[in-house]
Design brief:
Transferase(Phosphotransferase), domain 1, ATP binding, alpha+beta, phosphoprotein, Phosphorylase Kinase, domain 1, 3 domains, five-stranded antiparallel β-sheet, calmodulin-binding, transferase, single chain, serine/threonine-protein kinase, 45% helix
């Protein structure tokens, strides 16, 4: 039977590797971008993540797919998702990687009863260890953010892994300068936003933003448009507000300050950063920072309701680009756009798109069905309700602390 199917595929113009597709049963949507979609799948070895890239979307830039594959095949580290397999069809590339099932960093932290500065040092050390491995292999991730930091399994002692290497780059030399736009709004380094050319130092900047947010529950930069954000970052003024940073160690602030240097040459290398005193955990306090993180996540869920609209539009646009399937084949792009967006937003794998993509997505919004809009609006409302409840809980905790101190 397999031989017959293989011959049938050859007659229909499918590449030899297409035979592998029958080993994967596609499941829920994990995310979507300009070039394709990421789906969970059942395989002979268990659940995996399958990135499906439309060839039509990368026509003329096929080398970017080959570069990603080459990069993934080189990676072998406990804090980085591993490569599993690859195959292709007439109109798509498929990249199979390890599936992290333990949830995103901040979601997982919120499930804990307590999270201290000492706990934060363990998290940051895991991230930095992965970054140092990449940099020692002349690889820059370029999109470090909380959504790309996942726990491998639901187990309490699960490893934290770095995912999404879609815009990662291999450098020819240590001094190679990259010029393409990369990263996510709020986490991208100043040199990236100003198109000055960048290298490994961008990952250290992003780690600085993540560490700051992890310790206080909000970003060090709060501008809402690119021009103001660039100006804010260039000022280089990192403020540690007394209300939220009281009780956090001086070493933590020094560590963050060293990473958030406007001049990339002033930032430590990943190897140098690993030697920082704060990461030893000896000077870190036992201050519980969970209430601040829960407040941050409540706001993040509201933003994800808005992001859901964008994700639905991306999936809708991919559906329109997908070539006609051969008889008997199921489309790789989900038909229920709203449901796929609701599934995908939980993993938040979609990056903030550049302006031209935003424009395409706004046009695509008109194509969303009423049912899709209703489902998305419901999620936005529920996110707002969750935010209000979380704020009430945090307020009650703060009032309780204030009453106890009297």
């Amino acid at each position: 039977m397999e031989l017959v199917a293989s011959v049938f595929h050859r007659l229909n113009g499918q590449p030899a590797s297409y035979d592998k597709k029958s080993q994967y049963k596609m499941g829920r949507t994990l995310g979507a971008g300009t070039y394709g979609i990421v789906r969970e799948a059942e395989s002979p070895s268990g659940k995996v993540a399958v990135k499906i890239i439309l060839k039509k979307s990368v026509k003329g830039n096929e080398e970017m797919v080959q570069d990603e594959l080459k990069l993934l095949k080189r990676l072998d580290h406990p804090n980085i998702v591993s490569f599993k397999d690859t195959f292709e069809s007439r109109d798509k590339y498929y990249i199979v990687t390890q599936l992290a099932t333990g949830g995103e960093l901040f979601d997982r932290i919120c499930e804990k009863g307590k999270f201290t500065e000492k706990d934060a040092t363990v998290v940051v050390l895991s991230i930095l260890t992965a970054v140092n491995y990449l940099h020692s292999n002349n690889i820059v991730h370029r999109d470090l953010k909380p959504e790309n930091l996942l726990y491998l399994t639901p187990s309490p002692d699960s490893s934290l892994v770095l995912a999404d290497f879609g815009i990662a780059k291999m450098l020819d030399t240590d001094t190679t300068v990259l010029t393409s736009m990369a990263g996510s709004f709020g986490y991208a380094a100043p040199e990236v936003m100003m198109k000055k050319g960048h290298g490994k130092a961008v990952d250290l900047w992003s780690l600085g933003v993540i560490t700051y947010t992890l310790l206080c529950g909000y970003s060090p930069f709060r501008s809402e448009n690119m021009e103001e954000l660039v100006e804010e970052c260039n000022k280089g003024r990192i403020i540690f507000h007394e209300r939220y940073w009281k009780g956090v160690s001086k070493d933590a602030k020094l560590f963050i300050g060293s990473l958030l240097q406007t001049n990339p040459d002033d930032r430590p290398s990943s190897a140098e950063a690993l030697k920082h005193t704060w990461l030893k955990g000896e000077t870190a306090s036992d201050k519980d920072i969970l209430p601040e993180i829960k407040s941050y996540m409540a706001k993040a869920r509201l933003r994800r309701g808005v992001e859901m609209v964008k994700l639905a539009n991306r999936i809708e646009a991919l559906k329109l680009r997908e070539d006609d399937q051969e008889a008997g084949e199921t489309s790789d792009i989900p038909s229920n756009t709203a449901q796929a967006a609701c599934e995908g937003i939980t993993s938040a794998t979609a990056r903030v798109p550049p302006p031209q993509e935003e424009e395409e997505e706004l046009k695509g919004a008109r194509r969303l069905s009423r049912a899709a809009r209703t489902a998305i609006f419901r999620e936005v409302v529920l996110a707002k309700v969750r935010e209000m409840k979380a704020e009430e809980e945090i307020k009650a905790v703060e009032e309780g602390k204030a009453g106890a101190s009297k």
